[in-house]
Amino acid sequence: MSGVSLAVAPGSEPGKTTMLASSGEPKPVLTNQHQRTSPSGVMGSLRVIELQLVAFIMVFSVSGLVPLLDLIFPAFASAYILALSKLSFPAHASTRMVIPELFQGGRFFRIYVILGTTVGLFLPLAYVLGGFARGDDHAVRSATPHLFLLSFQILTENIISGLSLFSPPVRALVPLIYTVRRIFVILDWVQDVWANKTLPVNAAAKDAAWFWFGRTLAVANMAYFSMNLFCFLIPRFLPRAFERYFNERDEIRMKMSEDRRDASCQRTVDKKTD
User: Fold this and answer.
1) Which of the four pLDDT bands, split at 50, 70 and 90, describes residue 208?
2) Which of 39-42's residues contact partners 24+ apart within 8 Å by CB, and which partners?
3) Among 30, 100, 149, 224, which residue's CB has the most CB atoms within a 10 Å radius?
4) pLDDT at residue 60 in the model
5) Taking Cα atoms as reference points, which of 55, 217, 67, 8 lies closest to residue 128?
6) Taking each helix axis from N to C terminus, what angle separates 238-273 and 168-195, rounded to the nearest 10 degrees?
């Protein structure tokens, strides 16, 4: 998961925790069974969370601060995800009424997710807003593409994780696809603040603090999401999603085989009786 979904998870019921990888990254989502099935619960979630993310996306899109490639990437990713869900990994009919948990973690994992929320979402957003307030266009342009893609990722994850039409592999691939792209975007961010921006010799203390805050934040995002990709998503999260998917498929096939065997035996018994 993306490590930021904890902060933007849909409305919840205390005491019920579910790990859904829809944040490129793992995320604990407090779930409410009524909200999963009730239209009012879904609409409430859309109003509070998805619409806020849509507002972020629209602002970033019309600001001219997001490169064209990053603007069209969510459309490509969404089309590819839909194609996978229809052609390669369709949801099993018997599991469409249930949204299974893909990953469960303990206290350390929750701390890890909260750290990702802070480093990946809250601090970059504060950095962009601070750049606007200080008139630092360079800072705004450097961090905005990351926030744009992250907002799209969280929006996609929240929608897909609430729909049983999408199988576990498809849900797991969403954070993987977006995280891979965002790592390249963060690399550009690191280059911008470390190679293309310099601190004046006679800079004030607050300007120096702002300068090093931007540099540190870019490196922290690079470190966190690289670790998330190579230490969690690829080696742990994705295999578990595929394992869950193929186990469900095998169970369904076994059940169908048993049903056919029982039906055949029943027909044989009926013929002997006649």
Assistant:
1) very high
2) 41/10, 41/11, 42/162
3) 149
4) 86
5) 217
6) 170
